[in-house]
Design goal:
single chain, about 900 residues, mainly alpha, 3-stranded antiparallel sheet, 3 strands, elongated
Amino acid sequence: MADIGSPNTNAAEWLLITGNDVSSEISHDLALVQDGSFKELFESTNTRQAIGADILDSTNLAVKKLQADLDYASFVEECITAQHSAVSSPERSQWLLQLMCIGVGALRSFLQSNVTGPPLLYNPDKALISECLADDTDFMQSLLKASILSLRVDGESAYHLAAHPILLVLAKTVLNSSLLTGVDSPQTASWWRLRVNFLHQRILSEKTGSLYKSITADIRDISPRIMGQSGIAQAMFLVERAMVDSYFGNDAAALKELENAAALTGLKYALTGVIGKRTKFQQHETSQLVVLAKSAEPTEGIEGMKPKTLDLNDDTLLESISFTQSHSTTPKESTSLPVELTGLEAGDQPPLHPLDATILLLITETIKNTNPEDGITREQMMPYAERVLSHSTNWEVYTLSLLVRSRIEGSRARTVERSVLQLQVVVDQVIAETTGIRTDEVDTDKSIAPSFLPQPKEGESASIRERLLYIHQLPIPTRWELQMELASRWASIGGLRTALEIYERLEMWPEVALCWAATEQEEKARNIIWDQLFEPGTDQERTPPPPQAPRLWCILGDIDENPAHYEKAWTVSSSRYARAKRSLGRHYIANKDFNKAAEVYSDSLRIYPLHGQSWFALGCCNLELGAWEGAVQAFRRAVNIDDTDAEAWSNLATALLRRGVATGKEMLQQRQILLDDEEDEEVPTVVDPQKNRKDALRALRKACQLKRDSWRIWDNYLTVAASIDPPEFQDIVTAMKNLIELRKGTKGELAVDADILDLLVNYIIMEDLNKEKPTGYDPSKPGIQKYVVELVEKDIIPIITTNPRLWKTVAKLDLWRKKPKAALETHEKAWRAVNTRPGITDATEEWNELVDITIELVDAYESLGQMERTDGLGSGEIVAKDWRFKARLAVKGVMGRGKNNWEDTAGWERLKECLEGLKA
């Protein structure tokens, strides 16, 4: 893209991104945005003229239209389009930069009033509206309500009590305007568009497909622009991209981007162990998990400029890990430890650059999202938070680290008190600093809940610029999200009344209803929802419906188990609320109506195609319907979204194996049930069953890695590995070993698949015998032969009890290994397994089996008994000198047991003939 702006202006744009000083001589508006001087920005003549705030004539057509439809976004779009057309070509680039600054100023003002504080120095609800309308109280109230409704996307609504939503509407309108996508638009316009769209997504109740498409498009647009910029700018982009990926569930990509960002900033960090004490009465030091981290450049801490942190005050636990002042404080040298960290004292580490601290905090989020929710995961997360908390270098970074620690400590009995109180302190701080408007005359709207601690004095709190410096790289919750988290924390420790008070104060009626429903008071929950959806004392629905009407209808459907409520939620949202269709899908699956379930899940995925559980459910429906191609595509989408879902990988394998049976025509027909957003693929007319099996094997291999305790998945893995031509013998050994380990306690020898074990043993024997010079078994040589022998000796032989076929297979393996004595003993065990079976001489089939194995034993005595031993202390001796006696004894014993029932039968005659042969 051509850049026709001045080099100084282009550089100033990137200075704003990275937080370096922007000279007002280069761009006054950029400097105002950077310093947080939003009052001056929005009261300037150019800004007011651009957004129509200077219009005094109430008969103006644009003003009258705004009064009629309350569409502020369209009003702003019309104003900036008219202004743009009036600007001369030489000045257009500079005017577009000013326009972008208006959008950025509105975005950051919204963040200041809802996330970071301190209170705004101007009233945006008046400053951004035409002068002729700004004093009309009724109109302004209607416009603010309409602004909230305009932020609804795909049926998901924004919080209706958000402060100054008109700021976000202005930022969205300006930064998403087509005027800032042309060749003469500012270089960083797409980055700011990404930021406003991602913020919009974060304040919605659930994820949306529409905003996801916009966000990913912005990321693709920024990626080539960032390549020539500084390492800090590139790192900031990677951190923001990681936030997006983590938010939408792609934590593997997020972690990789964070690692790349750390490489760009020069951050060196390692999770390691250092000797220390954690409790007050601990006598002996033990290894403690710590994060060693060091920024590339020295950074000064700002200890006086940080939110309040509470002490633990526990009678057992120390406030922090105590490291002794000795060599044990420094971790032992390790090849995995970066050189920069080898001499670092764990208890006295230097302050981190705020961006580096941000990277560490985001790594804790990926750890939480990619590991089980248990104590081990929390122990792994805590050192990262403690490393950031050891020094304060930025107000918002420190605030987030307090939140992260509070969340980790919320599940431990000894730290849960500080967890709740620390969260309360942060909530009080944010509420106090985001409430009201601080003008020169008076602070407005100070009717807030009392603070747990005294508010910071002037000079103890961070500046607007510092608070906003890294706000786009931090997942800082909004003021209402923080209060929701506090309410949830109170509910988790039994403080239901406190939680309800918070939800009611926030007017979060869905949460209030869910709270009552969770305590089995469905009638109260039903009444709460009814009051929001219907006019008081009537059955007439509110017009227009409340912003969260779709969600309220779905909750009511859950309580009443009434699918009609889900349909109503879909209708109220103008067919955009994906959760309504998902709820319907669960209802239809519960009633075994898989056709309808597949249809409604497809509808929900057209709205939001990143919902992995819906893809999984759609795949299961297709399996039930026999639509194998549709099932394959659904499960593939599911594992692309969440590649840690073992069941999805297993079901994908099932669908792939079944798909191999369908003809090309059937596959084309099944393809029609897939979603509209998928690209058409060429469906082969000839199916390759081996390819499907190989793909299924890869899927099962992944499933086994993720869910190692599922014997069914291992059993499927074993079966598929053996069915491929040629079989995957290494996979067979691995699967059989794990399957035996999981099932031997309950199934014993039945955990062994005799057919597949025969396949394994025959393979390694024939592979050796087919050589020009067979070498036999060499235990010192690694490979499949050694793996099979170890499997048999360590896992199979110890559990064989009554299965003669398994003993025969073992005997075959022993003979190939040149162990004739062991082979003969194994044949004897096989014979005993049959001979001692209860009722073995009662039925023809059992009698014939006994006769067969007896004759096989005699053959073994004859062929092996005369051989020389090649192993053990008796090497060189005859295996069984009395083999003939033993053989006769075995035959006579069997004949004696079967004389009454089977004399003169064919089996009896075979035994007599065998006995005659032993007399020679």
